[in-house]
């Protein structure tokens, strides 16, 4: 008798695995789970890194923005001072950006707002010179007779919270605070922003001014002058004990032109000066004296003025060479001094030059001076010094 046996399914562990592995739905779900776990791990690591790195990244961005803003404020301050000198003009709070824009080529809107879209504000110190001089200020031929003390401005902005309401009274307090600090006074005491977000540039215009004295002394007519681009001529007032003249202050770089005048009304340009330091000019004996630097010649004598006055003095027609004698005197002195300079530059070691000066040029110079008094060149009294 033959017995039929049905094949029983395999129940071994290996058999189960084979059955599961042959199921495509199971494989997809298994792989998706593994990927999900991997992504969760990646995100967890990224979150941990972000917790450590993000604050540092934000600080680095803030530092970069603050550094760029400090550089921009300095550029604005330098450009404003340059523009003041170039234009002989000081702007007001309402038009400073236009002047700086022309000077730098940067759009005005980029000057009035920072990278965080907060306004840059110009504050003017009205506790000093600006309390007497209104803005905008345009320099005239008279300059200003008021000493420009504390002619100060501040360009200020915030990289965080908007600035509080500020006015001219804030300048003095802000002027002396250190970087990253704010005055311990209103309106800063109630402001909710951070001190390190406030950036400012101090602008002191006082060093841009020079003093100038222009006077007339011992001349039949007043000396004339012009200032800057103004073509008009103005007269330098007479200086005397009863006329105590005060200096006028002009912006550095101003062009000053000095003119000689004559009683017949003719005017001739004497010289052009660029005012770079305090100066003083006097029109004396129809000659402008001194220099833009206000320097005084050794012994208090203006040599150029002395020479000019000597050459223009009434000549002695009885001199040895008549009306040309004064010119010969100057030429002989110049010849002696130029050769003396050559000897000095050589360390006074050239014995031939020393002999030439002593035996030729010096006697010639003395004789030329003596020829001024003519007739016989020496006093008639033979016992007098010869």
List its traits.
386 residues, four-stranded mixed β-sheet, 8 helices, 3 domains, 17% strand, four-stranded antiparallel β-sheet, alpha+beta, 37% helix, single chain
Written overview of the protein:
- The protein has helices at 13-21, 24-87, 96-104, 108-112, 170-175, 303-312, 325-345, 351-370; strands at residues 89-90, 121-124, 137-138, 152-158, 198-204, 209-217, 224-227, 234-235, 248-251, 255-261, 267-274, 279-284, 287-289.
- It is α+β, with helices and mostly antiparallel strands.
- The protein has three domains: 49-204, no CATH class; 205-297; 314-386.
Q: Into which percent range does the helicity of residues fall?
A: 25-40%
Q: Tally the helices.
A: 8
Number of strands: 13
The end-to-end span amounts to: 179 Å
Tally of separate domains: 3
What is the SS-derived class?
alpha+beta
Radius of gyration: 43 Å
Poorly predicted runs of 5 or more residues: 291-301, 376-381
In which order are the strands of the major sheet placed? 9-6-12-13
Shape: elongated
Q: Into which percentage range does the β-strand content fall?
A: 15-25%
Largest sheet: 4 strands, mixed
The arrangement of helices and strands along the chain is HHEHHEEEHEEEEEEEEEHHH
């Amino acid at each position: 008798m033959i017995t039929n046996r049905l094949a029983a399914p395999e129940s071994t562990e290996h058999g189960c695995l084979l059955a599961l592995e042959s199921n495509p739905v199971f494989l997809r779900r298994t792989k998706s789970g593994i990927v999900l776990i991997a992504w969760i791990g990646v995100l967890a690591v990224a979150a941990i890194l972000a917790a450590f790195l993000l604050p540092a990244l934000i600080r680095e961005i803030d530092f970069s923005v603050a550094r760029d803003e400090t550089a921009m404020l300095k550029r604005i301050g330098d450009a404003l001072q340059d523009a003041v000198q170039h234009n002989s003009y000081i702007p007001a709070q309402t038009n400073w950006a236009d002047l700086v824009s022309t000077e730098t080529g940067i759009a005005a809107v980029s000057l009035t707002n920072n990278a965080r879209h907060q306004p840059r504000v110009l504050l003017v110190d009205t506790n000093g010179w600006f309390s007497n001089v209104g803005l905008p200020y345009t320099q005239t031929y008279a300059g200003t007779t008021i000493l420009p003390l504390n002619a100060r401005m501040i360009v200020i902005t915030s990289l965080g919270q908007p600035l509080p309401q500020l006015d001219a009274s804030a300048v003095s307090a802000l002027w002396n605070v250190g970087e990253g600090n704010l005055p311990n006074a209103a309106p800063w005491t109630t402001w909710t922003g951070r001190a390190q977000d406030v950036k400012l540039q101090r602008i002191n215009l006082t060093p841009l001014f020079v003093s100038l004295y222009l006077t007339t002394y011992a001349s039949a007519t007043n000396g004339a002058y012009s200032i800057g681009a103004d073509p008009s001529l103005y007269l330098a007032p007479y200086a005397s004990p009863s006329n105590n003249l005060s200096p006028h202050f002009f912006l550095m770089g101003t062009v000053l032109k000095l003119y000689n005048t004559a009683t017949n009304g003719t005017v001739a340009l004497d010289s052009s000066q660029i005012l770079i330091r305090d100066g003083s000019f006097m029109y004396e004996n129809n000659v402008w004296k001194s220099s833009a630097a206000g320097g005084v010649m050794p012994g208090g004598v203006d040599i150029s003025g002395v020479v000019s006055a000597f050459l223009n003095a009434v000549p002695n027609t009885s001199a040895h060479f008549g009306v040309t004698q004064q010119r010969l005197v100057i030429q002989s002195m110049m010849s002696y001094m130029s050769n003396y300079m050559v000897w000095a530059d050589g360390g006074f070691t050239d014995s031939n030059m020393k002999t030439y000066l002593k035996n030729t040029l010096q006697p010639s110079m003395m004789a030329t001076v003596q020829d001024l008094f003519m007739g016989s060149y020496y006093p008639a009294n033979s016992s007098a010094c010869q």
